[in-house]
Amino acid sequence: MLRIEHLSKTYRTGDTALSDVSLEVPKGQILGLIGPSGAGKSTLIRCINRLVEPSAGAVWLGDVNLVTLGKAELRRQRRRIGMIFQEYALVERLTVMENVLSGRLGYVSFWRSFTRRFPPQDIQRAFALLDRVGLLDHADKRADALSGGQRQRVGIARALAQDPELLLVDEPTASLDPKTSRQIMRLLTEICAERGLPAIVNIHDVPLAQQFMQRIVGLRAGRIVFDGPPEALTHEVLTRIYGEEDWNAMKRGDEEQARAEAEARERMEALAQ
Ligand SMILES: Nc1ncnc2c1ncn2[C@@H]1O[C@H](COP(=O)(O)OP(=O)(O)OP(=O)(O)O)[C@@H](O)[C@H]1O
């Protein structure tokens, strides 16, 4: 489905963000990208749909090499790739429905998109998607009236409105609390399973990746240093990906977070009695 071959990226500043990355993602697989800050996770995701131009290598989506396409053909092929962002990238003053329909903009004529007159079947599908992400009752609300978790649900529905063959997901839960993060990851993984949709998810949170991803790829300094199932993420592997110091610091952070959550739960239970 997606095949990345020998992908490299060196920015104009001279920073090499990716070195010879090769990766295949079959239909229906949800893959988590982990690695320390600056490892190249965002660059990899953005090179796939050429928001960042790769310096070398190929990105095959089916039998199309996205790297060699001219502008017009790239625009057409990008419809096949849905993107979900950390900060949702919604148009705040538009309604939830309008934001979801904006996922169809690549398909409708300029005039229709200018007047925002979408075909009835697009509107019907948008309602169905809002229902799927649990926001049917919020269709007419402005995006800026929603919570973070609800905004991300709109982001998911908008990406699906595109009818994509691949999802690229860049830190979808980084702005959300732990419980909402789990709900969003569960929704994403369920939707991918239902549709046989492959996804690459850039994810900071290792426990969350372990809980929800089928496959984990660890990047370090622009290279793949691990590729395997979540169960294989041992202390030794995580140290290889993050380095001793960073991994121990992250572990301490997670333990503190878990303790704080448990304490908050106990306090709530005590209040309820
Ligand atoms: N626009 C840019 N211009 C120059 N260098 C860049 C640019 N974007 C990223 N880099 C560099 O490329 C490397 C990889 O960055 P990237 O953002 O892809 O890493 P990341 O793993 O996503 O990090 P984080 O988890 O902190 O978001 C870093 O050294 C970074 O400084």
Could you please describe the fold and organization of this structure?
- The protein is of the alpha/beta class.
- Among the domains are: 1-80 and 198-242, Rossmann fold (3-Layer(aba) Sandwich), CATH 3.40.50; 244-273.
- The protein is 43% helix and 21% strand.
- It has helices spanning 41-48, 71-78, 96-101, 110-115, 120-132, 148-161, 178-195, 206-212, 235-242, 244-272, and strands at 2-10, 16-25, 30-34, 56-61, 64-65, 81-84, 166-170, 199-202, 215-220, 223-228.
- The strands form two sheets. The protein has a six-stranded mixed β-sheet with strand order 6-7-8-3-9-10, sandwiched between helices. Strands 2-1-4-5 form a four-stranded antiparallel β-sheet.
- β1 and β2 form a beta hairpin.
- α9 (235-242) packs across α10 (244-272).
- The longest helix has 29 residues, at 244-272.
- It is flat, with a radius of gyration of 20 Å.
- It binds adenosine-5'-triphosphate.
- Residues 11, 13, 15, 17, 35, 37-43 line the site of adenosine-5'-triphosphate.
- It comes from Albidovulum inexpectatum.
- It holds the Pfam family ABC_tran.
